[in-house]
Amino acid sequence: MEKSHENVKAFGWAARDTSGVLSPFNFSRRVTGEKDVQFKVMYCGICHTDLHQLKNEWSNSIYPMVPGHEVVGVVTEIGTKLEKFKIGDKVGVGGLVESCRKCENCDNDLENHCRDQIMTYNGAYTDGTTTYGGYSDIMVTNEHYVVHWPENLPMEAAPLLCAGITIYSPLKYFGLDKPGMHIGVVGLGGLGHMAVKFAKAFGTKVTVISTSLSKKDEAIKHLGADSFLVSRDPDQMQGAVGSLDGIIDTVSVIHPLLPLINLLKTHGKLAMLGAPEKPLELRVFPLLLGRKLVAGSFIGGMKETQEMVDFAAKHSITPDVEVVPMDYVNTTLEHLLKSNVKYRFVLDIGNTLNKN
């Protein structure tokens, strides 16, 4: 397609205020620059972050807001100096659309930790232009922040671009990807079910840790976990003390850490991925005995995100999703708020986003 010299007309759904209610929205994308990829959005995952941002629960929301940072589509236009993509390629965009590219983090493929990173939506470019996300028909993004989407990976697996990399990165970085290791997964939601799938693909033994016995069959029979612990059962937790090489904690509400730390072997690692609103209690002495580590992790850099989707394609790892039409988005967000989803909602943008 010949490159246009005018801003690109775009259409999506946006929230205008803290009610978080979305409605049709006409806006403009920037001209496709020399290193930009323009693509038609086909699918966009709905992340729990979208709920927080839509309602300004983190006190940083910019309205009107077009959410969406798990975006998969097909390239329709490319910049004149583009190197990585061609028209017709399947591509994905996750949580980032820009970073400084000159700091130590960027130099080490850790754009996700760049202090000047620009988020895919609810952010602003250096010229002050607001970033709009994937609840829209097209996107224009610098090629550095776009990943190749493998041909054998369904585009509906868009949540890999947030939930997937959020799990993959700490498993790799903290060395919890070695066959034969025993990994615990706390919480069996959007992140937790992906943690089970990736950990099993790495060849580890997986124990799901949950407050409720009701998820045991799902964890073992459907997702392939090896065992299940009810965290509120003192006998079960005591029987598993010192049995885990690492734990992936996906829970975003206040919960006790000491019982989890006690499950770790010497040199065991507890990776925190959830973000509870209030501080968690962390006793130091249990960390000293066994030289244990409690750490955090946040999505991943672009090189690692590409590595993750390639790994997912090779091992047929996809999130369990419910695909919904665009005009059902407000009802879908209500279901998400009540955790009434197994395990991620994905918007069918390409087939159901119609201009009014």
From TrEMBL:
Protein name per Swiss-Prot or TrEMBL: Enoyl reductase (ER) domain-containing protein
Keyword terms of this UniProt record: Metal-binding, Oxidoreductase, Zinc
GO molecular function: metal ion binding; oxidoreductase activity, acting on the CH-OH group of donors, NAD or NADP as acceptor
Presence of keyword Transferase: no
Cofactor: Zn(2+)
GO BP field: lignin biosynthetic process
Domain Enoyl reductase (ER) residues, every copy: 20-347
Record has Oxidoreductase as a keyword: yes
Lineage top rank: taxon: Eukaryota
